[in-house]
Amino acid sequence: HVPQGPVCTNLGLKPGQRLTVKGKIAPNAKSFVFNLGKDATLVGLHFNARFDAYGDVNTIVCNSKKVEEWGAEHRETVFPFQRGGTAEVTFGVNQNDVTVHLPGHQFTFPNRLNLCVFDYFDAKGDFTLQSLSWE
Fold first, then answer.
1. Which CATH architecture has domain 4-134?
2. Where in this chain does the record put each Galectin domain (predicted)?
């Protein structure tokens, strides 16, 4: 069972804007998830940091979900998170993709659902949200 954290709706993030998530990672963390999309059923970016989950160790897995249909997984092997540490991730919304800014690394994930606005964000798993800011 994955603990459900905060849920935000009506964010209204449009291309050119960014969302920064900060928080603490549990000392015995297995994984945590950030979802960004239109709502809970249309997830443009599912960001899953896996310390040790689903057969992955220290891997970030990103995907998109349209209702119950998942897309192809995108894996990043750069893993800047530590159990018991703090995490800061910024999601920059662009016209055709989302840029994910991690400490010392960044990558882009395509906007597969062609969302023109990202209204929804949630955080789940072994992570305690401390602040959420957008510009």
1. Sandwich (2.60)
2. 5-135
